[in-house]
Amino acid sequence: MAGMSLTDQEVADLVGLALRAVAAGDEDGRWQVVTHLHGEGGQPALDAARELCGHEQAAHRELGADILSQVGGSKGPLRYAAVRALLDTARDEQDPAVLRAIAVALGHRADARAIPVFARLRSHPAAEVRDAVAFGLLDLPERAANDILIALSADPESGVRHWATFGLARMTDADFPELRDALAARAGDADLDTRVEAIHGLATRRDPRALPALLDSLTVLDAADGDVDGNLVDEALFVLVASTGDPRLCPHVEARRVAWLADCPYEELPTDLRAAMARCAAVSPAG
C-alpha cells in the first residue's frame, strides 16, 4: 500500500478525529492528524479540505486550510488545486484564525497567485494575520512580495517586523534602494532579533549604513548573547571587517578569537574569523 492515498472513508474518519481533537482542545492531536493527511491523504484529503473550507464553523475552515497547506507535498501535483481552494476561501473570509491559517498555507505553497491576498491582508487589524502574511511571503521572489515585506518591516508588532526583516535580509537576493532603506530603518530596532537581521542584511549588501549600525549595537548585542543569533552578529562583523577594514571593529574580532581559542586550536577557527583577524592585523600591525 506504500505510496497510495487513503480512501475517502479513511480520510473522513481522520477528519472526524481531528475535529474531536479541536473540541477537546488537543492541538497536538489535531496536528498529528493533519500531518498524516499531508503525507497520505492525497486527492481524498484535498476534497475533504475543500468541503471543510465551506463550513459555517470557523474551526472547520481553519482545519481545511491547514490540510490544504501541504497535502500531497508543498510543491506536489495537488499544489495548483490546493492554492485555488485557499484563494477561493480567502475571498470572503473574516475570521482572523482562519485568515492566519490561509496565509500560512499559501506560504507553504509559495505560489505568486497569492500575492494579491497578502497585499490585502498586510494591514489586517489582527497581528496574527499580519505575522502569517510576513511568513507567507518568505519564499516568493517577486518584487511585489518584497514590497509587502517592506511595509510589514515597519509593523507595530515586533514579531511581524522580525519576520519581514528576516525575509528582506536573508530570504531574497534582491537589492534595490527601497529594500535597503527598509533594512536601515530597522538597524536600530528595539527588538534585537529584528535589529540583527537588518544589520546583517545591510552588511551582506555592502551598504555603508551597516558599519555605524553595528558599531552602535555590538555592545548590547554581545551582552544579549543567547537571546540573539550570535552567528548572524559574527557574520555581519566579519563581512564589515573584510569590506571596510575599520579598526574600531578589531577589538570585537579579538574578543571572538580569544573565545574560540579557549575551546579549539587555531587550525579549527572558522575561516571568516581567521580572515577578519588577518585584516585587523593588516590595518593595525602594532595591535
UniProtKB/TrEMBL annotation:
The record's listing under Pfam families reads:
HEAT_2
For this protein, the record's Gene3D superfamilies field holds: Leucine-rich Repeat Variant
| Name of the featured protein | HEAT repeat domain-containing protein
Q: Which InterPro entries match?
A: ARM-like, ARM-type_fold
Lineage top rank: taxon:
Bacteria
